[in-house]
Amino acid sequence: MALAQDDIAFIKAHLGEWLAEQSLGKPPLVYEIELRERMVRVEEELKHQRELMRQGFEQMEKRFEQVEKRFEQIDKRFEQMEKRFEQIDKRFEQMEKRFEQVDKRFDEMLKRHDQQFLWLVGFIATSTGLVIAALRYL
C-alpha cells in the first residue's frame, strides 16, 4: 500500500511540528547545549555520589577503628583475667602445700599415738604378767 501524494504532503507539513513536540526537532546547536548541560549535571551528581561514598568509607573506617579499640580492651580484660587466674593458681598451690604439711603432721601424730598405744599395751601386759607371777609366788 503506497502513500498518496496528499498523505506525503500532510506528513511533510506536520513533521516539524511533531518533532518539536518530541524535542527532537530543535536545531542542532540548541540540542548540543542541552546535552552539555545534562552531562554537566550528571558529572556533578557523580561527583556528589563519589563524595558521599568517600564519607561513607570514612565512617566505616572510623567504625572499624572503634571496633578494633573494643577488641583491644577485651584483650586487655582477658589478660587481666588470665593474671588473676594465675594468682588464684598460685594461691591454690600454696594451700595445697599447707594441706600437705598438715597431712604430714597428722601422719606423725598417728605414728606417735601408735607408738604410745603399743608402749601402753606392752606396759599393761608386762604389769599384768608381773602381778600374776607375784600372786603365784605368794
3D structure, described in words:
The protein is an all-alpha fold. It has one domain. 92% of the residues lie in helices and 0% in strands. The protein contains two helices and no strands. It has helices at residues 5-21, 28-137. The longest helix has 110 residues, at 28-137. The protein is rod-shaped, with a radius of gyration of 55 Å.
Please identify the structural class as seen in this structure.
mainly alpha
Treating each run of at least 4 consecutive H or I residues as one helix, how many helices? 2
* Sequence of secondary-structure elements: HH
- Contiguous low-pLDDT stretches (5 residues minimum) are none
Number of strands: 0
Helix content: over 70%
- Strand percent estimate: under 5%
Number of domains: 1
Shape designation: rod-shaped
Gist of the model:
The chain has 138 residues and is mainly α.
